[in-house]
Design a protein that fits this description.
The protein has 156 residues and is of the alpha+beta class. The protein is built from 3 helices and 12 strands, in the order E-E-E-E-E-E-E-E-E-H-E-H-H-E-E.
């Protein structure tokens, strides 16, 4: 099994312990050799999304502390700054669901207790969603799965 926790890749083969997986590592599964490689992210700064049913096409431009979310045909973007921008930028960079703890540590660091981290994340999620709705965007663009996982729901 191979997975990413948002910070690092890990692997666990049958009968072995979990270990980090890094570029260049080799794995043998049922006699087949696999090699981990690093692939540069392409287009991470600008991602287009298309809803499956209705809605506008979105273009997201992420500059870490500033995120622009452009609706198709809109004259101006929804501009996020501060923590809401960082939250969206982190989710965009990760490219998939992430545990709330990992996301919160990326936003506020490791020296904050879990209860405070969760409270800060909940407030930031609420502010971000309010900004999205006020700009006429989907509230569920930033989605919580109610099981500790959060992701940018992009309808690719």
């Amino acid at each position: 099994m191979v997975w990413c926790d948002g910070l690092a890749w890990r692997v666990r083969l049958v009968g072995q312990r979990v270990r980090p997986l890094r570029a260049g590592d080799s794995l043998a599964v049922d006699g087949v050799e696999f090699r981990a490689v690093a692939v540069p992210g392409v287009g991470a700064a600008a991602v287009e999304t298309v809803p499956r049913i209705g809605g506008d096409r979105l273009r997201i431009v992420s500059r870490f502390d500033s995120v622009q979310i452009w609706r198709e045909g809109a004259a101006v973007p929804c501009l996020l700054s501060g923590r809401p921008a960082r939250l969206v930028a982190e989710l965009l960079a990760l490219g998939g669901p992430v545990r709330w703890e990992t996301l919160a540590h990326e936003l506020w660091g490791d020296d904050v207790d879990p209860a405070t981290l969760r409270h800060r994340l909940d407030i930031t999620l609420m502010k971000t969603r309010c900004l999205l709705v006020a700009a006429g965007l989907r509230r569920d663009l930033v989605t919580s799965h109610r099981n500790g996982w959060i992701e940018l729901l992009m309808y690719l």
